Amino acid sequence: MPAELTSLPVMSRRQALALAGGAVLAALPFPASATTTARSIPSRGFNLPGWLDREAGIAPATATLEKLRQSGFETIRLPVNSDLISAGDTVGVRRIRDGVADLAGLGFAVLVDMHPSADLHAAFERDPAAASEQVVQAWTALRPVIADLPAASVYPELLNEPPMERAVWLALRDRLAETLRATCPRHTLVWGPARFQGIWEIADTPPLADDNQIAAIHFYAPMAFTHQCENWDTSPLARMANLPFPATRETPAVRELIARLRTAGDEEAASLLEKELSNPWTQAAIASNFAEAARWSAAHGCPVMLNEFGVLNFCVDAQSRAAWVRAVREAAEANHVGWTYWELDQGFGFIASRQSTEGFDASMMAALLGEAGQL
């Protein structure tokens, strides 16, 4: 099968709406070992957190979405929050339905991603049975919405980065699939391996016993590069800055940072950086990870998509950031893996604001979409 995307022609908003929610979608070829030809893998996308996963979330401007669609983006992964979904909350459920329908009406494929909040993560640590029940009840409340939206363009994702051991997750995964299948027999189910949804965790995770599924993985390696200067916890990654890609231990910027960290007495960060560089940061190293994922896909007849990858824009040079993003995107495409970038307009983002058609990062657009992505 060819590795390149089968791209959807760019449409105007009016044309997209006329297609009844985007029934004609972009797709990557299904692995050659598969027994069905009906399925496709959503790709060329981005994540859109900060909207339907919080009470006061900010919706993107229609003009911004239209520009993104015209640029060549075809998929949106849309986090939703089980804390905000209950059987009696018709307003919250309707808000999700309307948001997903609007995105599909613009011609996007939409992954409805059940994205755990910090409270749900804590609940899984405290009482896994009760937390699991909360997720089941959220999908029970949301499944009529999914059932009413076109299966060709709306993909329910069972649970992002399942915060539990693999055996516990596999049991919950089966239950969530059964819950959705009760009313959504034709929708493609998306799931990822526990506990971080890392590309390395798919190798020993079996697929669902379902003939219409996509396994979803995340890729942020090396973390010292993609998460340098992160500011939301006390990780030593917060004390790494201005690291390039590609790089080795002998790269001058790397040697200088390690020396500076040790001079400051920060052995934790210096040792982590050396460990992260035990293998060089190269395009070839990235490609080898995706070749492994492709082998799993072929062995199981189950398509794979990369629905999170990205680089923080806090303290990295634009050329290195774009080089890593391009390398990951090209490795995914070469191995029949669909992709959605994390994310649109926050720390990992590639546009300044979801409310504006200005401030699109040209180097990132080119890295994600090729030269055709530059408007």
UniProtKB/TrEMBL annotation:
GO molecular function annotations of the record: hydrolase activity
InterPro entries noted in UniProt: GH (IPR017853), Glyco_hydro_5 (IPR001547), Glycosyl_hydrolase_5 (IPR050386), TAT_signal (IPR006311)
Entry-linked PROSITE patterns: TAT
Gene3D superfamilies (UniProt xref): Glycosidases
Topological relation to the membrane, as annotated: Single-pass type II membrane protein
Pfam families named among the record's database cross-references: Cellulase (PF00150)
Subcellular localization, as worded in the UniProt entry: Cell membrane
Major subcellular site: membrane
Keyword Lyase: no
Keyword Metal-binding belongs to the record: no
Family: Belongs to the glycosyl hydrolase 5 (cellulase A) family.
Function: Glucosidase involved in the degradation of cellulosic biomass. Active on lichenan.
The protein, known as: Exo-1,3-beta-glucanase D
Originating species: Mesorhizobium caraganae
